[in-house]
Write a structure and sequence with these properties.
Helix 3 runs parallel beside helix 4, helix 4 packs parallel to helix 5 and helix 6 packs across helix 7. This protein has eight helices and seven strands; from the N terminus they run E-H-E-H-E-H-E-H-E-H-E-H-H-H-E. The chain has two domains: 209 residues, Rossmann fold (3-Layer(aba) Sandwich); 36 residues, no CATH class. The protein has a seven-stranded parallel beta sheet, sandwiched between helices. 47% of the residues lie in helices and 14% in strands. It is α/β, with parallel strands linked by helices. Bound molecules: nicotinamide-adenine-dinucleotide.
Length: 257
């Protein structure tokens, strides 16, 4: 399957899952726009490296997904958006009665409202092109809850709901909208938590992974960014044409519990 000639915009893609998806789509031949809120030489070098590795066009566009105007400007600056991957996300953990209001607002804006703004800006381009894919990176927390993650769980459930609405509004054209719901994925962010947790609980690395981080993931294995990239690529393939308005869990059995 080739995505040659298609352009993918992936929000929050200078690291982790977003970067894995950008690499996978570029590997399938898509031109890619990668994004974050920073604007460093490393960000632009990353785009250049992806372009060279996969012989595609790759651009880095700075846009802060906490701001509605930036979300819409990202799509406008991309100029074309056949594949939209709403991936940017942050987390904060606190009891609901102690949850900082600024963290609540930031999580709702970045993890949920950004997908509304980018989708609103991208759908006219997809309709014009007669083809499109909206891929929202939700979470197992879009389908189930955990304590102390009120904003994150609310935002991710919201994204799953929005995915269904977008699918219904585009059902009669060749546009699909789906949400990928990962459990724990091995990203630099997750890796960085391991040493501190080892120290906190006096556990070795394997114990921290099995008993703390992957406590609720029955497979006791992380998903990988390459696997998430593979699923995003599959959703762009002809085999996935009739898959729309649904969620794909990649959680080692978490939501089967
Ligand atoms: P990450 O921190 O490596 O990546 C987050 C990305 O979002 C980064 O590129 C960051 O720069 C970007 N970002 C953050 N704030 C932004 C803003 N205001 N504007 C633009 N970009 C911004 O984390 P990740 O684990 O790769 O997470 C990516 C997505 O996957 C998130 O939506 C997250 O909720 C979801 N997810 C992650 C896991 C996991 O276990 N890692 C599991 C389920 C869902």
């Amino acid at each position: 399957m080739s995505l040659a000639g298609k352009t993918a915009v992936i929000t929050g893609s200078n690291s982790g899952i977003g970067l894995g998806i950008a690499r996978a789509l570029a590997g399938a031949g898509a031109n890619v726009v990668i994004n974050s809120f920073t604007d460093s030489p490393e960000d632009h070098a990353l785009a250049a490296e992806i372009a060279e590795t996969h012989a595609v066009t790759a651009r880095y566009i700075r846009a802060d997904m906490s701001k509605a105007s930036d979300c819409r400007a990202l799509i406008a600056e991309a100029g074309v958006c056949d594949i939209l991957v709403n991936n940017a996300g942050i987390q904060h953990v606190a009891a609901i009665d102690e949850f900082p209001v600024d963290k609540w607002d930031a999580i709702i804006a970045i993890n949920m409202s950004s997908a509304f703004h980018t989708t609103a800006a991208a759908l006219p381009m997809m309709r014009q092109a007669g083809w499109g894919r909206v891929i929202n990176i939700a979470s197992a927390h879009g389908l189930t809850a955990s304590p102390f993650k009120s904003a994150y769980v609310t935002a991710k459930h919201g994204v799953v709901g929005m995915t269904k609405v977008v699918a219904l509004e585009t059902a009669e054209v060749a546009i699909t909208a789906n949400a990928i719901c990962p459990g724990y994925v091995h990203t630099p962010l997750v890796e960085a938590q391991i040493p501190d947790t080892m120290q906190k609980y006096g556990m070795d690395r394997d114990q921290v992974i099995r008993e703390v981080i992957l406590e609720r993931q029955p497979s006791k294995q992380f998903a990988t960014v390459d696997q998430i990239g593979g699923i995003a690529t599959f959703l762009c393939s002809p085999a996935a044409e009739q898959i729309t308005g649904t969620t794909i869990s990649v959680d080692g059995g978490w939501t089967a519990l």
